[in-house]
Write a structure and sequence with these properties.
71% of the residues lie in helices and 0% in strands. It is mainly alpha-helical. The protein has a domain of 48 residues.
């Protein structure tokens, strides 16, 4: 018979899983900032603002939300 694994012992994730996980988070970060920035840009255009207020506000809001998501993901272990 082969080796039996102890079910109470947690499995260590492989390095490739970590690359995929954190690479996916990086991709999400870029997409969220881009989408929120684009929405803010369109709002600024629609309102005719000379200062890109909504672009900055929404881009920073997206960045803050993703940083919180990354923090939660890292501290889940």
């Amino acid at each position: 018979m082969g080796q039996s694994q102890d079910p109470s012992r947690p499995r260590k994730p492989s390095p490739s899983n970590n690359y995929l996980k954190y690479g996916g988070l990086a991709f999400q970060l870029l997409v969220v900032i881009g989408v929120f920035g684009l929405i803010g840009y369109k709002i600024d255009q629609w309102l005719g603002l000379r200062i890109p207020a909504f672009t900055l506000i929404l881009a920073f809001a997206g960045f803050g939300g993703m940083m919180f998501q990354i923090y939660r993901s890292i501290n889940r272990h």
